[in-house]
Amino acid sequence: FQPGDKVWFCHGGLGREQGNYAQFTVLEESRAEFMPARINYPQAGATPLALITAWEALYDRGRLQEGQTVLIHAGAGGVGHLAVQLAKIRGAMVITTVSNEEKADFVRSLGADAVINYRTQALDKTVMELTGDKGVDLAFDTVGPEAFRQSLPLIREYGTIVTILDPEQSLITSEARNRNLSIAFTLMLTPALKDLNDALEHQGEILRLGGEWMSEGRLKVEVSRILQLNEAPVAHKLIEEGHTLGKLVLMTG
């Protein structure tokens, strides 16, 4: 890199790293990649953590393949809307859940094949109808214990569920064992927390490839709202209440 180059990266604020609520930071050169030409700074700031999370969940842990069917919970969310696009790039059939029609229209625009409004439709019945009673090959939980629990009977035998959250121990039930399901966790901050250099380099490669797809127009990030840094409590409240579409961004100036 040269002074003035536009770069993007992901700093988690764990281990030896600084956090992101600041105007400046210092990082190893190998952790950064050139920022895609077709995006702006808010989009660049919003993408890396969510992109790496979705990539590792679907491609690395879930081993999603062309022709498979994936259930993505909260497909209009920060991680979910990137996961929908990554799954379509891989050639999978995408079923995703949303809470309202605005979000349904949004995920359809990203390529989702089937959209389930979990407030008005029965998740279990709809998924089984869509899959001919076979269930999905992969379920991706970005919501929490209830979504994890609901997913288990909707996955075909020998299928996989990946979660970014911590399901209650009681949810690891005989349902998963009897169906020979693989249960995987993904926490993209682990390499930084544990100082795992190979994994950190892999995440840099994810940003490089993802950046190429963004430059080609195959992948995009949705920034629904930009707030100032002193509005961080507002941003956290919006996320906790589940009222976000895509990503929120905090600007330092």
TrEMBL record:
Where in the numbering of this chain does the Enoyl reductase (ER) domain appear?
Answer: 4-250
Q: Which GO terms describe its molecular function?
A: oxidoreductase activity; zinc ion binding
Q: Which SMART domains match?
A: PKS_ER
Q: Which InterPro entries match?
A: ADH-like_C, ER, NAD(P)-bd_dom_sf, Quin_OxRdtase/zeta-crystal_CS, Zinc-ADH_QOR/CCCR
The record ties this protein, via PROSITE patterns, to: QOR_ZETA_CRYSTAL
Q: Which UniProt keywords apply?
A: Acetylation, NADP
Highest taxon listed in the record's lineage:
Bacteria
Q: What GO cellular component entries does it have? A: cytoplasm
Query: Where is the protein situated, by its record's location annotation?
Result: Cytoplasm
> What protein does this entry describe?
Alcohol dehydrogenase
